[in-house]
Amino acid sequence: MANQKFSNSDESIKDSLPSKGKILISEPFLQDNVFSRSVIYLVDCSDEGSIGLVLNKNFPLDVNDIVKSLKETNNIPLFCGGPVGSDTLFYLHNLNNITNAIDVGNGLYLNGNFEQIKDYILNNGEIEGHIRFFLGYSGWDKGQLMNEIKRKTWVVSSCSIEETMNTKNATIWDNSVLDLGNKYKIWTHFPYNPALN
């Protein structure tokens, strides 16, 4: 997907294709506990499949509850990254000196040496805006994500580093939809449950 070539007249098509560093915005009637009104940051996207992290689904625990060595630090928010590997901790960050971190675009990195991450936190490194933690991830097999986009389950867009790393942005879905333009503005007025309308 990311390697396809387009003429200038195909820019709108190119912009609508998923790629590493883009976000997926779910359509408003997607009825799923994890994906309903979700915004997903794509950390990998190729012809073989795609991987992303849900940015706006808080987990009922903090990182401090599951990483004992961080127990005494200030509460660190934890998010549900998706339904796959839900017993595994993932971390998205903009710390460019973490060993074995994977470059996922836009100046952001995935995972890397967790001891270095812990040292950063324990030495009072700023967390908000720099590190986000997730349990699990979202995954699509070959061709699956493109099929879902064709069925209009997702709209592909972009998001600033500040918005991506903002753990306090409860309105990221609404803001991302509004950024899509007037065509999608009505989405923000749809009820969460159409049956109750």
How do the strands and helices of this protein lay out in sequence?
Elements: H1 11-15, E1 23-26, E2 39-46, E3 49-54, E4 58-62, H2 63-66, E5 77-80, E6 84-93, E7 102-105, E8 108-110, H3 114-122, E9 131-141, H4 144-150, E10 154-157, H5 161-165, H6 172-179, H7 182-185
Parallel strand pairs: 5-9
Antiparallel strand pairs: 1-2, 1-10, 2-3, 3-9, 4-5, 6-8, 6-9, 7-8
What is the ordering of alpha helices and beta strands? HEEEEHEEEEHEHEHHH
CATH fold label: VC0467-like
As a whole number of angstroms, the C-alpha radius of gyration is 17 Å
Note the total helix count: 7
CATH class type: Alpha Beta
| Secondary-structure content class | alpha+beta
| Low-pLDDT runs | 1-14
Overall mean pLDDT: 90
Q: Which percent band covers the strand fraction?
A: 25-35%
> What's the overall geometry?
globular
How many DSSP-defined strands?
10
Could you state the oligomeric state of the chains shown?
single chain
In CATH, the homologous superfamily goes by the name: VC0467-like
Helix content: 10-25%
Tell me about the largest β-sheet: 10 strands, mixed
How many domains?
1
Q: Tell me the distance between the termini.
A: 39 Å
Could you say what the CATH architecture is? 3-Layer(aba) Sandwich
Description:
With 197 residues, the chain is α+β, with helices and mostly antiparallel strands. The protein has a single domain, classed as VC0467-like (3-Layer(aba) Sandwich). Helix content is 21%, strand content 30%. The chain has 7 helices and 10 strands. Strands 1, 2, 3, 4, 5, 6, 7, 8, 9 and 10 form a 10-stranded mixed sheet that branches. 30% of the residues are buried.
